[in-house]
Specification:
The complex is a heterodimer of chains A (389) and B (202). Chain A is globular and about 70 Å long. Helices cover 38% and strands 16% of the residues of chain A. Chain A has 389 residues and is an alpha/beta fold. In chain A, strands 1-4-8-5-11-12-13-14 form an 8-stranded mixed β-sheet, with helices on both faces. A two-stranded antiparallel ribbon of chain A has the order 2-3. A two-stranded parallel sheet of chain A has the order 6-7. Chain B is α/β, with parallel strands linked by helices and 202 residues long. Chain B has a single domain, classed as Vaccinia Virus protein VP39 (Rossmann fold, 3-Layer(aba) Sandwich). Helices cover 35% and strands 24% of the residues of chain B. An 8-stranded mixed β-sheet of chain B has the order 3-2-1-4-5-8-6-7, sandwiched between helices. The chains are: A alpha/beta (389), B alpha/beta (202).
């Protein structure tokens, strides 16, 4: 078993080898600070065709990264959206050119709190500026410029990825021919802020966290971070789904142990998910990214609210929600549809009936994948025709 | 062209709708009417549909559709946001058809609504001579599994519009392949011989 410090070193070395651009253009952040000459890590799948009309931008969620499909070269695990993206899949990489960038504030190669602050040659830690969803999206727009893509065939993302997408469409109304926001919200709810706060408090309560200064000591507040991840995992499932998956089943034992070890399978699952996570994610990144989610309120950015945010949209939308998702509910997704409708945008909506909760968008949900594929393929035909005319 | 297979009702509805307009099809099914309107009349279409399978099919055809229930979800469409709203043979299936119609007239500058005519002579005969609830081609369900809660006749809908001060612009009766204009002076006879009534109101 390698030491955690060793593991970090090894991961950092691998991170050195991933695709990155340096964004030289200064980016004025919502918090007032400006960043420049910063790295944005990204990955692409498939080939950009000659007309450059087959590009699909994927925005990742809170704990995701740019490695959408195939094998993540840093963790050696499967990409996070391997169910939907790949050769012959709903987002077919034989046909489309798929781009995904690591968000700023993240820890997979884009500028984040574990990077070195040029002002004092120390890891940023809490000196890293607080970033917003809008900041993340602006950075990614620079990547499209770098790749020479004027208009995307489609942009999509689930959860925080969907929030980035809504922001992207509002800020850059002519950059995407079509958009599929999945299981998301136009403003973070009190319940979601509360859950994020729980995650942050768990990290900050870990003495190893040390006000975010753990990075220079090559350690990680893994107990706090693991708890933060467990909170997340509970919120990604549904009550029914969890009951069906785990019930009261015991973990490789015939009876209670009368101890506080993981007697129940559900406990064992949470512990496994929690401690697997600390090996691939930076605790300070969780603080920064959850903050960005909490600050997200698209209607607040525009006088006249959400309807105004979507005004003058030519983008064709498909909003998708999942019936058992209590984190980003059908109601919240429908509010997006209502606003899009009111602004006169071209919008479709589907609610997928499932017990699998918020996680559904990452799973093999046939109805969901069918509708995603149908939409993107039909949009490609339209986009090609429009370009021809 | 798919339009060849389109049923007579949709052809009549399509004829009522001018080119280059904006139309909401409430209960749009698999999108066959929307597809026709889009391809043949350059109409900007939107659909509202409850059934997942149908929603799937519309999206595969590149037709914008919102999955939802017209009974409860029409509020999401702003006032006068469409030139026309179409409601094909579902008015009778709502709990509150009056409320739905009111909403349709709010959303559209005009509304096309079609109803299976309970005044059609075969329907009347079935009840009169056999004493049974009618089962016909346009009303294929039996009493215990029919989705139709508020059956009405062409004459009923005429009366309804007068009472509620809803302007009737045109009414077309459909019987198999034949269509005819229905006016006040031929209402009784057309109410007997039309299987469907298609109303342009608002």
């Amino acid at each position: 078993m390698p030491s955690l410090a060793g593991l970090f070193f090894w991961m950092n070395r691998k991170i050195e080898n991933i695709n990155k651009i340096t964004i030289t253009k200064p980016l004025k952040l919502d918090c007032g600070k400006t960043i420049k000459n910063f790295p944005l890590a990204y990955e692409t799948y498939g080939k950009l065709n000659e007309n450059k009309d087959n590009a699909i931008l994927v925005f990742h969620a809170l704990t995701g990264d740019q490695f959408v499909t195939g094998t993540n070269p840093v963790t050696n695990k499967e990409g996070w959206w391997v169910t939907a993206v790949g050769p012959g899949k709903a987002i077919d990489t034989d046909k489309y050119f798929v781009i995904c960038a690591n968000v700023i504030g993240g820890c997979m190669g884009s500028l984040g709190p574990k990077d070195t602050n040029p002002e004092n040659n120390q890891p940023y830690g809490l000196d890293f500026p607080v970033i917003t969803i809008k900041d993340m999206v602006k950075a990614q727009e620079s990547l499209l410029e770098h790749l020479g893509i004027k208009k995307l065939l489609c942009a999509t993302g689930g959860s925080m990825g969907g929030m980035q997408l809504l922001q992207f469409c509002a800020t850059f109304p002519d950059k995407a021919f079509s958009a599929v926001p999945i299981a998301c919200s136009s403003s973070h709810s009190a319940q979601n802020i509360a859950l994020n706060e729980l995650a942050r408090q768990a990290i900050m309560a870990d003495p190893v966290w040390d006000n975010g200064k753990y990075v220079s000591k090559n350690v990680q507040p893994k107990n706090g971070l693991a708890v933060a991840r467990m909170v997340g995992h509970i919120s990604y499932l549904s009550e029914k789904g969890m009951q069906e998956k785990f019930g009261r089943k015991l973990q490789e034992k015939a009876d209670y142990e009368f101890s506080f070890n993981a007697d129940f399978q559900v406990e064992s699952y949470l512990r496994h998910q929690g401690y697997a996570f600390v090996e691939r994610f930076d605790a300070n990144s969780i603080l920064y990214i959850t903050r960005a989610m909490d600050y997200f309120d698209l209607s607040k950015q525009y006088k006249g609210g959400l309807v105004e945010a979507f005004k003058n949209q030519d983008t064709k939308f498909l909003v998708i929600s999942f019936s058992s998702d209590w984190l980003y509910t059908t109601k919240e997704n429908k509010d997006i549809v209502i606003a899009l409708n009111a602004s006169g945008a071209d919008v479709s909506y589907s609610e997928i009936i499932t017990d699998k909760g918020h996680d559904s968008f990452l799973l093999n949900e046939p109805e969901f994948l069918k509708i995603l594929k149908g939409f993107i393929d039909s949009m490609y035909e339209k986009f090609k025709n429009e370009k021809r005319i | 062209m798919k339009s060849l297979k389109m049923k007579k009702e949709f052809k009549v509805i399509a004829e009522l709708l001018p080119n280059n307009t904006r139309v909401l099809d409430v209960g749009c099914g698999d999108g066959s009417l929307m597809n026709f309107l889009k391809e043949e009349k350059n109409i900007e279409v939107r659909g509202l549909e409850l059934n997942q399978e149908n929603v799937q099919q519309c999206i595969h055809k590149g037709l914008p559709v919102i999955q939802g229930n017209a009974e409860t979800e029409l509020h999401q469409f702003p006032d006068q946001s469409f030139d026309y709203v179409v409601l094909s043979q579902t008015l009778q299936a709502f709990y509150n058809p009056e409320e739905v119609l009111k909403n349709l007239l709010r959303i559209g500058k005009a509304v096309v609504v079609s109803i299976p005519n309970f005044g059609y002579w075969k329907v009347r005969m079935k009840l009169l001579f056999f004493g049974e609830m009618p089962v016909t081609k346009t009303l294929p369900n039996t009493w215990y599994n029919t989705p139709n809660l508020h059956m009405c006749t062409i004459k009923d809908l005429f009366k309804f519009c007068y009472e509620k001060n809803i302007n009737i612009k045109q009414v077309v009766g459909v019987n198999e392949d034949k269509t005819s204009l229905i006016k006040k002076n031929n209402l009784e006879i057309k109410n007997l011989f039309s299987k469907l009534g298609i109303f342009l109101i608002g």
